[in-house]
Structure formats: C-alpha cells, structure tokens
Amino acid sequence: MGQNLVIVESPAKMRTIKKFLGSTYTVAASMGHVRDLPKSTMGIDIEHDFEPKYIAIRGKGDLIASLRKEAKKADKIYLATDPDREGEAISWHLMTALGLNDASDKKVYRITFNEITKNAVKNAIKSPRDIDQNLVDAQQARRVMDRLVGYTISPVLWKKIRKGLSAGRVQSATLNIICKREEEIAAFVPEEYFTIEGTVKSGSKTAKVSYYGEEGKKTELKDRALSDAIVSEARKKGALVTEVKNSERLRNAPLPFTTSTLQQEAARVLNMAPQKTMRIAQKLYEGVDIKGHGSIGLITYLRTDSVRISDEAFEAAKGFIGERYGKEYISYARPQGKRDQNVQDAHEAIRPTYIELTPTELKEQLQRDEYRLYQLIWNRYVASRMTPARYDTTSVRLQSGTHTFAANGSKLRFDGFLSVYKLSEDEDSKQDLSFLKEGDDVSFDKLESQRHQTEPPAHYTEASLVKKMEEDGIGRPSTYAPTITTLMARHYITKEKRSLFVTELGTAVNDLMRGSFPSIVDEQFTANMEYMLDSVAEGRTDWKSLIRNFYPDLKSAVDEAEKNLSRVKVADQVTDVICDKCGRNMVIKYGPHGKFLACPGFPECRNTKPFVEKIGLKCPRCGSDIVIRRSKKGRIFYACENQDCEYVSFTKPRGDKNGVAIEKKLANAEKQ
C-alpha cells in the first residue's frame, strides 16, 4: 500500500490529526507560511504587471528540505492547511516550494475541514479537490495591495514625522475611526435634562414609577421649573391606576459566535483582549491533550462571520439538550444571522466539536484561560440551540392630574436558554406589581426630579472597535485583532483600563493620512476594497486588474506628499523623572522593545533609563509601587519597584480596598 503525506500548519494540529489516520499516513507541519514577499524590498515588480517576487522565508530552509524529502517518499500528498484564503495560499506556496507543480508522478490534493475531528478529517480525505486559484488570487491581491500601501506611504511618514512609523490599508482606516470618535468627544457640548422617578404606595407595598408625559414612553424634561412643578403637583394629588396590562414577553436565545462576536463577548465577560482571545481559540481549535482522548480539537474553525451550523451538529445539539435539560428546552429553528453582502458563509459558526464534553468535565485539564474561553463558547452554543426565555410582564399606567406615570414589572416563567447562558437584567423590571389594580388610588411614597447631563460618545474599547470594524466592513475576521495590536505597537493608540485613546503621535499620523491619502483612511473605500477582494475570491474579478486600477492614484498621492508636505513635529511626553547627568526632565521615547526614558538634551546628553509603568497598587510585602516589567522573552509580569523585594506575579494583581495588591502564592514565579 502506498504512503500518504498530510501537511498542516502547526505541530498541535499535526498531533491531533495523526491519531485519526493509520500507519500509511505521515503528518507534517509547515509552521505557517514557507514563502512570502521579502522584508528588505518592495518585492513587487511594478513594471511587469505587479508580479510578486516570493522567496523562501528566512530560517525555513531545513524545514522545506525535510518536507521535500517526505514528499518524495509519498504517492499521495494532502495539503490540509486552514480552510480560508490564507490557508489556501499556504497550500499554493507549498506546491511551489516542494516542487509539486511539475511532479507528474505525484497526486497532490487540497483538503479542508471546519473542525478537527475523526469524521471531519476522514470525510475530507474522501472528497479532496484542487487548489482554489480564486481564493489564492484574493489572498495575493490583499498581500500585494497591503505591501504597496505600506511600502510607499510608510517612508513618507518617516520623512515627515519620524522613523519607525507605518501605514496600512486596514490599519489606517481603523485609526481614522478612533480619531473621529475622539473629535466627537472633544466637540461634544453637554445638555441638561431632568427625569422624574419615585415610588407609589398602596398599603405596605411599593412600586417604582417614572414620569411618562404624553408620548407613552419615559419622558425627559428640559426645564427644571416644569419638572419641579410636576413633582409638587403629583405629591399633593397622588395618582389613579388607569390601566393594568398583563402579557408575555419572549427573550430569544443569542446566536452562536462568529469571530467578531466572540472577541466582543470575551472582552466584555472575561476582560480578554481580542489578540489573546484568538490565540487561545487557535489552541482549542488545533488540539488540546485530554485524558482518555489524547490531543483533540475542542472547537470549530475560529475565523468566520457565519452563524450557520452543520446538520450533524444540529442533530447532536437536539439530542444533548433533550437528554440534559428536557425536550421543552430544544429549539428546532436554525440560527438566522444578518443578511449582508460582507458575510461569507464558507465556515460554520464557532461551536464545540464535541458537545458532550462539558466545561465542567474539562476544567481540571485546561489552563485557566483555555477553560474560561471554552466555557464561554460552549455555553453560548448550547444556549443558541435552546428555546426562548418566557416572562410574564405587567405594565401599569397611573394618572396624576394631567400627568402620566408608569411602572413596569416582569417575572421569569420559563428560563429556556437562560438555564445555560446568563444575560444582564434590568433589576427594576423584576418588581412585583400584582398589588396594583385598575381604579386604585395610590399615593407617592417618594417622588424626585433628577438632574442629568447628556453624555459624550464613549471611547472605543477593543470590543466596540471590533464591532465597528465589522459593521463598516473594515477588514475581515482574521484581521480585527492584528490591526488593533499593530496600532498599539506603533503607539498610535493606548489603552487605559478598557478604553482606547489616540496618542499625539497617532493624531499626527492620521492628520497626514487624511490630508494626503484620504481614500486610504476612508471607511467606505476600504469596505469597497474588501468587497472587490471577495469578488476576486468568487472568480468574478481578475486580481491584477484590481491592482492596476488601485496603484496609479496611490503613486500620484505619494509623489504629491513627498513634494509638498512639511515636516510635522510631535512633542515627546515629558515626565517628572530628572536626568541625573544634566538635571532636565526626561521624556518618553519609543524603541524596538517599547518605551524608555531619554534626556531631551540629546546629543549633548545621551542619558537613558528604563521606563517604569506603575499600575496603581502597592506591594503587599514592602509597600512600594508595583510596576510592569518584561522578561527576556518579552512576557509581561508585575513586580515590586523595590529591587530588593522578591514580590512578582505573572497575572495582573487585584487590589484590596486600601490599594494594596492581594498576594498569591506562585509556583516557579521567577523573573525570566
């Protein structure tokens, strides 16, 4: 029997797949891409129709040689890289790097699977296909377009602002979104308004009420005198219950996760950054060692914007829910997401591959963050396949003279999906209003006019920015997290608590981009480009023609900017740290490894110091400030500012009410 070779991207994926295949299969890992554009040059032959000049990635020579050796021994070769454009391109590059394009004696196949399970892998091998050149061309178009933008505009930023900066097709549009929000906040003028809140009393029972005016909804008043007059009149007159309505309200189950909604919910519930969410989800997808199972993939493919689920998963969920929770909890409806031209339906929603492996069963075998994310995905998916929650609701209208007040209450009658996936509830709506009957006269136990101010738009968080990028069609599920990470790494934006703020440098870069490259930062233009890339993937547009139409305007704008733009001065952030050589206040600079302190007297004074960032908590051992540090491998940890103190933590400390870190005993917590 002939030998078969299966090539995947990662060792984890390799280990998981190996156990599904027999001894006639060898599984190897390419460790991601094996070819790419060179870093030192543009790598695109603009004069010859934008032909990319791919080279073997530095340091992968031995790996490519090893894969070639395995390929020579195999009769059939299965390229099993990820089921998306990037994965298709990796397989295409492997064909060339391993000399498989002209290997007439070899049978080379492309296989894909949305989940790494025995059935999925076996079925993929039974139905192989050729490489989809349209998907490859869409990835090439994206790569070439991004390289043209980055390698032509970035040098303009170096000349006009400072070295080390970068621009990008998705990156720059996203920065512009954040800057526009900052401008909205800065331009916001608060307005005063008043609401009337209180309680009515009948016997010993009370209910919360609000002023509803004449519009049938909670009313905001612009005038304090009017608000105070209504309160005064109502207190004197009391109120008459004029209407009591009882009805049922359904709260539908949430949809299963897409990449975007997973990142948003993980940020909201777990305080997990999108990049970290994707890193952990990748591990759960590729394979985790589970006792009794070996290495298994616990979730389906993590880069998707579809809420579709397979027939097999649909039936498995019905059986599991019926057995575990009862037949009344089973939903027989298919999940229906938004119908949008930007939604691709190549992959299922993100769901557990084995619904019977509950988070509780796996808790002791997963790392803490793996468990938390798996629990979130499992709970969300199971909830999405369950019936709605049902509430008995009561709506009461009360009349006080010419003024209308209202009270609303609800009681959970059937928990449905809430038995698995809890959502935040309005506590006021849970009040019992059964004691209020039509025709009852009630008095106001408490009634007050409350002053408010309109609030400016909130700063973006990573979660809300991902949502905005998805809504505007900026990038694709695979690019949301890396884009935000790049903006932070370039120091264009910074995060304080959960909010994102534009730095002075980010503002300067965005102003230059807006003035000289308005199409690059325009959300609609960027979204249209994503649509055109989708058109290439579907075989409706030639990728070279897309680049031919795009490049001339870019080249013209770059030439104009280099000729006419003046240099922009971005002030360094001054600190209260004094230079011990010349007495000046040191400033924050940015280097390859992050922030550092430098004397502004350069080149006369070349003094530098490490930048120490405090987190606002005191050391539980000696009382000094706790600061953020990095290990030699770049890992962030938290340590006492006092070098003689041994306190260190690899998880961000929590503080007590006095602002002192709560100490935890750590195993092997050494400063690496």
Task: Please give a quick description of this structure.
By secondary structure, the chain is of the alpha+beta class.
Secondary structure layout:
Elements: E1 4-8, H1 11-18, E2 25-29, E3 35-36, E4 44-45, E5 51-52, E6 55-56, H2 61-73, E7 76-79, H3 85-97, E8 107-110, H4 118-126, H5 133-160, H6 169-187, E9 192-202, E10 205-211, H7 224-237, E11 239-251, H8 259-270, H9 274-286, E12 288-290, E13 294-296, H10 311-324, H11 359-362, H12 368-384, E14 389-400, E15 403-414, E16 441-453, H13 462-472, H14 480-489, E17 493-496, E18 499-502, H15 504-516, H16 518-521, H17 523-537, H18 543-564, E19 573-578, E20 585-591, E21 594-598, E22 608-610, E23 613-618, E24 625-630, E25 636-640, E26 648-649
Parallel strand pairs: 1-2, 1-7, 7-8
Antiparallel strand pairs: 3-6, 4-5, 9-10, 9-16, 10-15, 11-14, 11-16, 12-13, 14-15, 17-18, 19-20, 20-21, 21-22, 23-24, 24-25, 25-26
Helix pairs in contact: 3-5, 5-17, 5-18, 6-14, 6-15, 8-12, 8-13, 9-12
Shape label: globular
CATH architecture of the largest domain: Orthogonal Bundle
Radius of gyration: 30 Å
- The CATH first-level class of the largest domain comes to Mainly Alpha
